[in-house]
Write a structure and sequence with these properties.
This protein is of the alpha+beta class. The chain is built from 6 helices and 4 strands; from the N terminus they run ααββααββαα. The chain has a 4-stranded antiparallel β-sheet, covered by helices on one side. β3 and β4 form a beta hairpin. α2 packs across α3 and α5 crosses α6.
């Protein structure tokens, strides 16, 4: 996995300090690096539901797919526990998730299609945040770090 991070002459962890966080483990930061360095292998479909989202995310690379699953499962567990990793590049959209995790119902399933996440809420503010965050994640899956830089510039 570590060889993979440096393949293709992309960023390495020393050049990606924005992936570190106040409460992020080195493994979590490394997962982000794998996904950013291999974003072109990632496909994502988002369905906006009236009360939330349904997303299907996959990678054509089995190692990246494993990393995706680990990241999604780990971050959703963090939200449920209210443990904000405070990653430097993290979107402010995530704040509400960590403040009110009880307002989100999450279902995760790994299928042939990819990792399928359905998140719903009765709270209109949370639904809006779910929609916004799904768009942010899709932008990152499409354009990698460029999308992050654009989002940070717009803040």
């Amino acid at each position: 996995m570590h060889d993979r991070m440096h393949a293709g002459g992309g960023h390495d962890m020393t050049n990606m300090p924005g992936l570190r966080g106040v409460d992020a483990t080195p493994e979590e930061s490394a997962e982000l690096a794998v996904m950013f360095n291999n974003f072109e292998t990632i496909t994502r479909m988002v369905e906006e539901l009236p009360n939330g989202i349904r997303t299907v995310t996959a990678s054509s690379d089995p190692e990246v797919m494993d990393t995706l699953v680990s990241h999604v499962v780990g971050m959703i567990a963090r939200v449920e526990d209210g443990r904000d990793p405070q990653i430097l590049i993290q979107s402010p959209t995530l704040d509400i998730f960590f403040e009110r995790p009880e307002a989100i119902t999450t279902d995760i399933e790994v299928t042939e299609e990819g990792i399928v996440v359905t998140q719903t809420s009765d709270d209109p503010e949370m639904v809006a945040a779910l929609h916004t965050h799904a768009g942010e994640v899709s932008a990152m899956a499409d354009r990698g770090m460029d999308a992050v830089h654009e989002m940070m510039m717009n803040r």
